[in-house]
Model the fold of this input.
Amino acid sequence: MKKTFVMSLLVLLALAGNAQTRTKRLRPYLSTTTYCAPGLTPYVENAIAIENRSATYKEFEPGKFKATVEITTMFRPYGDSLVCNLSKIALDSPVVTDTANLDGAFIDQQRFSLPNGEYEMEISITDMNSGEALPSTTVTVSLDFKEGIPSISDILLFDSYAKADQLSACTKSGCDFLPRVYPFYGQSEDKLKFYAELYNSDQLYDEGKYLVNYYIETVESSNQMKDYSFSKRFDVGQVNILLNTIDIKDLPSGNYYLVVEMRDRSNALICSNSCFFQRSNPSVGFDTGDLASVNVANTFVSQITEIDTLRKYIRYLDPICTEMERDYSSNLVRTDDMTTMQQFLFNFWSTRSPMNPKQGFDDYLAAVRRVNMSFKTSSYPGYRTDRGYVFLKYGQPDKIMESPNEPGAYPYEIWHYYTVANQRNKRFVFMSKDSAANDYQLIHSDVVGEINNPRWQLEIYSRIYGQGYDQGVDQTEYERGWGSHAGDLYDNPR
Done:
């Protein structure tokens, strides 16, 4: 089963409405990875990057300035209030002489040894020069390294590494790594560098080799990207290191997973892990050459001969398209090129449902009809609404908490998914200012790549206080009143 690299953005969003930020706002980013060499205690490794320009710098010597932030990290067993690991550190930025042209970020790395289990990690960050304290953020962390069982650590994306002169919090396999805390690769970047540890392969055989596959797949469809699949053989051992670089110069814009697999001599999957990253590469477009060779004769799309119907079916794909497919299809439906539309539609479902493209199309069309009936508004068909988008992209939620008449609150819904792609225990929050219009907007989610708003509760309860209500720029929760329970439903779905 894939385990997912946890990447959370601790970015506090701007105040809603007309409220204005009164001080500089810290912008921290967190990446969390887990490891456990055989015979050792599992550990969590955090890397927190603070944008230089978001911190407050003070002069400590004539012409020399630095920022200082305090980072508090607490671990509790999931569902328990007992703190089992705690750290509080003061992190200084590099010294600068010019605070007008700050760029980049300064980074803190820490390790926390913990037994196997599931934990709630709470992180609080304070700018010591301005006194600004960001709202604490809680992330679920899972450690599940079983003794003697082959497994793979989380995958670390990094910018550079060097042989370590002395051991430090960032030393692994004798090297110090500069982690890539925010996994975004712009157009000017063409190398994806990564590190992973492979454990207990010696439990497979007494001697010999085993196979490691690593590849890039799309988040939307889990399709392996052509030309981005690789293999390497390792001698069996307690620990093996996979340290490699992938050239992503020609990788199109989109959301991706980097996947690492351990396989045995018969190519059977032993275990795997993955991490998320984003790519912006507008110079690479959709490969129309792939479509030109698609033969649609005697396929289900050859029966779709009404051009407006073809356009409609292609537009229906928006929630599950990759960014590149979406850009291409939005232009395609403006043409009268029926043949290319048929080729695009068939190719789309052939890559996602290769054994039976028509069945994939039919199942998705049934889901679209369902959301068009359930979520349509006076302005949009259901598939173009936020709830329709989430339903089509991630499937039916495991739980839906509806609150249309809570005192003092706008109508809202909280959707809970046990799993979303490779992520666990995820939620979406929708709110409507007019329940009669059935127009619920997505205002918050903890799913990677979706809108994330720590102040979502204030939006729901702004019906009480108004959009301008503010007890301080750091407030993220409302003043609880009779019958208010959005936070409880979010934390304890039922």
